[in-house]
Specification:
heterotrimer; A alpha/beta (318); B alpha/beta (258); C alpha+beta (431); A: five-stranded parallel β-sheet; 8 helices; C: 431 residues; alpha+beta; nine-stranded mixed β-sheet; eight-stranded mixed β-sheet; 15 helices; 19 strands; globular
Chain lengths: 318, 258, 431
């Protein structure tokens, strides 16, 4: 009898776990495999995962109050030694990346991050992910076993409860880490005011905006369009005009909006990779040579400060 | 105390050339220190300036990383020494191989209490090497670090932003920290520092210098290609500003996105 | 301020600055070579034909290691009218033997290499620094300042290009008078190596250089050039700034028109534009030369106005190296005698006067004036076109003698015989 593949899943984010199960189904190649997942949380978390095709749910009620998510590493490591998985599938959150790296280093094995697609050829598994700030994609084959991987949100289909299979729920105890940082203070940050990934329309100022005050005009345009305000990375990280969660592109947000309006955005690939899935792209820039025009549905070469008020007027009168 | 800052020297992603067939080339790209790594160097240098100690910059790669311009750039930003582990088998090295090499190099250096990494490399941005090195060394390891302060008792106070939570932590030394780009603004090198850089020490180590007899790749790169591009209409509107704006609004309405 | 004072600060790492730094470092002087861009050549857009003999003197057989593109074996002068081209194509085997006459170079690569040589010789390359001003002690230059920072040396060499801000600040020369300034605009167009070799009938690393006059510039004083590199073509225009301003034409419009001319188009078609840029070119020759030395400072290269354009060729890089050699000799001598006064540094001017640089500038002293003659860009190409049309066109009418064709061409274009004779005389004297 063929040995069944062991796939072990972890993320502290329960909605992401269901997408990881989707990825695990692809990894199983339609052959029998044993899917196990470590879940932090109560019975509701477990219920959300029932009938999704998972065989075993290792359940940890809660983390000790002064612990970080990544302090689960020692518990995860214990289970890894017990399960001996072929694939370790981890959610690409901040803690997930740290855990992935530590597991890969301790196992002296391949780590594959932010996987976008999973496929198989005659020689086995191939994954695809972005390199060069989104300028290229790379197809890679892991050469060591097991394979530790991270997968971010929105890459794989979330598994709905459609399997007959009822998972076996196994309670686990928390194993404290050997050495760790001592948490002195933790503070919930004010809720993020924006979810760009789900915005219908997005206006995006770039370096063509000369002064911070001019963002009020951008806000006015956003209001008349019913759009969220995003920005390019320099406006957020360089100038600090807008919060981090508003910048589009590599290491920032990826939008799926119906409409994207770039205001003085030059169109570096690091940014435009984030608007690939936007349905209609409008570019307004004074520089006719700006690369953004090559990736726009509609282009206007003109002074932003003339176009914005005219556009606001046109939208109001309509 | 020595602070090691690990830097990746890569072809500038801005110089990436995409061929008509979707092929990707870095042949003509300028090699430079990753832009996410420079804030880590600056953070290390500021700690050393405040508390004493020496910053040693460390990188690993093919012989292409050992260029006078790159060396000078790193050393003029405040690192006192530069260690380059050079071996052509490091071409396309994945995170597992690079982490092994950096770990061995750090072990060869003396009195290292703190190792800093940027948030990710400029070319791959896998955000893995730093945390893997931390685990290999067996030191406390944290990513997403936004602020570092050295406390009296040989420990660090670290501030982190993890998803929607801000954390303040006491971190015992030795430690490995991966810092975000907004930890601090990298300095522009001054003339004096650039002149001083040419007198600083650069060590070039081979793999055998750090006790590695050969690297086994952990990943095979099967293909590198340009990402699929959404096909766009590319319609340039013309006329006066009012005419262009009204044409735009009409088009957007037709497309059903208003 | 600094731990050790420098002997020399060279500002600008083009061909002149790199050569001077190289020679001074070789002589054991402590030299800083300051560059505005991230590396030597990064801001440089020269058309790129290097007459190599003088560089051969300081780096023997440099072409064996330097990133030169092709050695120039064909020198072509082309006259354009709106619909025709007439070329004088000189090709000689003599130019395809070492030490070669001239090379096409791409400055971003070549200057960088020359900078590497200077660094290897011990010069301290300081990139990414924009020098804001000279520091003076009375009338003596004692250093430079960039932002808040100051740096001192026994002598400053200004190699900061056509627009030399340092020479202006030192009062060695006024702002460039517009009539003696041209705008250079250039593109580098990528084409496969074999396409270039077939299209220009080149064997191996042979290359050609075109100087183009006539409708290239829509009658504006100036000319075009086109050089073959290994797998690209440098093509550009050098146009009188004053004329451009007077006629209110944008340089980009003239350039686009030039590129679309059937003759140019046939040479660059299918290529992909890789690089584009514009900068100022000094064109005044001897008349525009500033004072070249003062207490604690020398001016070399383009900053010293050292270029010659005689219609057949444009030269600057070899003159720049020539001036660097003379300057280095003067500074080394001054260093030995610990005397950096104006009198001591006057030795630079003496060495320059004895060299080919001044000799050639004298020879072509009248060229800048002659080259501004509008007939050169408007009437003569048209006359030539009409003559050749008369010779070759078979229009079912009796053929005419060459003399008749010529006379008619001259008359049709309203060219007075007196002007023609005057121009011939002036041309022969100027060139």
């Amino acid at each position: 009898m063929e040995i069944q593949r062991q796939i072990f899943i972890f993320s502290e984010d329960i909605t992401l776990v269901r997408e990881l199960i989707g990825a695990a189904q692809v990894l199983a190649e339609g052959k029998p495999a044993i899917l196990s997942a470590l879940v932090i949380g109560g019975s509701t978390s477990v219920e959300q995962m029932q009938n999704t095709g998972v065989d075993r749910i290792y359940r940890l009620d809660t983390l000790p109050p002064d612990c970080l998510v990544e302090d689960i590493f020692q518990t995860l490591w214990g289970l890894t030694r017990e399960i001996k998985p072929d694939y370790l599938v981890i959610g690409a959150t901040t803690a997930g990346r740290l855990i992935c790296g530590r597991l890969a280093a301790r196992l002296n094995t391949t780590a594959l991050t932010d996987i976008q697609t999973i496929e198989f050829d005659a020689q086995g598994l191939l994954i695809r992910h972005m390199v060069f700030g989104g300028g290229a994609q790379r197809l890679e084959r892991p050469l060591r076993q097991p394979v530790v991987m991270t997968i971010g949100k929105g890459q794989f289909e979330s598994q709905a409860a459609r399997s007959e299979k009822v998972a076996e729920v196994i309670p686990v105890a928390f194993t404290p880490p050997e050495t760790r940082a001592i948490l002195r203070e933790r503070r919930e940050l004010p809720p993020v005011s924006v979810n760009l990934a789900e915005a219908k329309r997005v206006v995006c100022p770039g370096r063509g905006i000369a002064r911070r005050e001019d963002l009020t005009m951008v806000e006015e345009l956003a209001r008349s369009l019913g759009a969220e305000i995003a920005c390019t990375r320099p406006l957020s990280e360089g100038l600090g005009w807008l919060p981090r969660e508003r910048y589009i592109g590599i290491s920032g947000a990826y939008i799926k909006a119906d409409l994207y309006v770039g205001l003085g955005v030059s169109g570096q690939v690091q940014h435009t990779i984030g608007i690939t899935d936007a349905r209609v792209v409008v570019a307004i820039n004074r520089d006719a040579e700006a690369p953004i025009f090559k990736q726009a549905d509609y282009g206007i070469v003109a002074d932003l400060y003339e176009v914005m008020p005219a556009l606001i007027d046109a939208l109001r009168s309509a | 105390m020595n602070i090691v800052v690990c830097l990746k020297i890569t072809p500038d992603p801005e110089d990436l050339e995409i061929g008509p067939d979707g092929s990707v080339s870095t042949t003509h790209a300028e090699w430079k220190t990753g832009s996410f790594d420079l804030p880590a160097l600056e953070a290390g240098v500021r700690l050393a300036e405040m508390h004493g100690g020496k910053v040693i910059a460390l990188s690993a790669g093919t012989s292409q990383i050992n260029q006078s311009k790159v060396r000078k750039d790193i050393l003029s930003r405040g690192a006192e020494e530069l260690v380059l582990v050079v071996d052509d088998s490091l071409k396309d090295a994945s995170t597992a191989e690079t982490a092994l090499v950096l770990e061995k190099a750090i072990r060869k250096l003396t009195d290292v209490q703190l190792v800093l990494f940027g948030e990710g490399s400029a070319d791959l941005y896998f955000q893995q090497t730093g945390v893997q090195v931390g685990e290999r060394l067996g030191w406390v390891t944290l990513n997403a670090v936004q602020d570092v302060r050295l406390l009296e008792n040989e420990a660090l106070e670290v501030q982190r932003i993890v998803e929607h939570e801000l954390q303040v932590l006491d971190v015992p030394l030795p430690a490995v920290l991966c810092v975000t780009s907004d930890i601090c603004e990298p300095r522009l090198a001054s003339m004096r520092e650039i002149l001083r850089a040419s007198k600083k020490t650069v060590f070039e180590w081979s793999l055998s210098d750090i006790g590695i007899e050969g690297l086994t790749p952990s990943v095979e790169i099967v293909k590198v290609m340009a990402p699929p591009r959404a096909s766009r209409k590319g319609e340039m509107l013309s006329g006066s500003v009012e005419e262009m704006v009204s044409a735009l609004v009409n088009n957007l309405r037709k497309d059903g996105v208003l | 301020m600094s731990e050790e004072k420098l002997d020399v600060i060279v500002v600008g790492s083009g061909v002149a600055g790199c050569s001077a730094a190289l020679l001074l470092a070789r002589a054991g002087l402590r030299v800083a070579l300051i560059e505005r861009g991230p590396y030597p050549g990064s801001k440089n857009l020269s058309g790129g034909v290097l007459y190599g003999r003088v560089l051969h003197q300081i780096i023997p057989n440099f072409w064996e290691q330097a990133p030169v593109e092709r050695f120039i074996t064909n020198q072509v002068v082309t006259f354009l009218t709106e619909d025709s081209s007439i070329s004088l194509d000189y090709k000689t085997e003599a130019f395809s033997q070492p030490p070669y006459n001239a090379f096409s170079v791409l400055r971003a690569k070549f200057d960088r290499w020359l900078g590497d040589q200077a660094e290897a010789a011990g010069a301290l390359l300081v990139p990414g620094i924009k020098v804001d001003r000279l520091i003076l002690d009375g009338k003596k230059v004692i250093g430079i300042a960039a932002g808040e920072e100051e740096m001192f040396a026994e002598v400053v060499i200004a190699a900061d290009g056509a627009n030399s801000f340092l020479a202006q600040q030192a009062g060695l020369r006024p702002r460039l008078p517009e009539e003696h300034v041209a705008v250079g605009i250039k593109e580098v167009i990528a084409l496969p190596q074999d396409v270039i070799e077939n299209r220009f009938r080149l064997n191996g690393n042979e290359g050609c250089a075109f100087n183009i006059v006539g409708s290239a510039t829509q009658g504006i004083a100036g000319g075009g050039f086109l050089y073959t590199n290994r797998d690209s073509i440098s093509v550009g225009l050098v146009i009188q700034l004053a004329d451009l301003i007077e006629r209110q034409i944008k340089v980009t419009e003239v350039f686009d028109h030039f590129l679309q001319h059937p003759f140019i188009d046939s040479l660059i078609k299918g290529g992909k534009m890789m690089e584009y840029g514009a900068h100022l070119v000094p064109e005044g020759g001897l008349r525009m030369m500033p004072r070249l030395f003062m207490d604690g400072m020398l001016v070399i290269g383009d900053a010293a106005g050292l270029t010659i354009n005689n219609g057949f060729w444009v030269r600057g890089m070899d003159l720049a190296i020539g001036s660097a050699i003379a300057a280095a000799e003067a500074v080394i001598r001054a260093h030995e005698s610990r005397d950096f006064s104006e009198q001591s540094l006057a030795f630079y001017h003496q060495k320059l006067s004895e060299s080919f640089v001044m000799a050639d500038l004298q020879t072509y002293a009248r060229a800048p004036h002659f080259m501004q003659n509008p007939r050169l860009f408007t009437v003569y190409p048209q006359v030539l076109r009409d003559i050749f049309l008369g010779i070759y066109e078979q229009n079912a009418r009796p053929n005419q003698h060459l003399m008749t064709i010529g006379r008619r061409a001259v008359q049709q274009n309203d060219l007075s015989l007196l002007d023609l004779l005057k121009d011939l005389w002036n041309g022969a004297r100027a060139l």
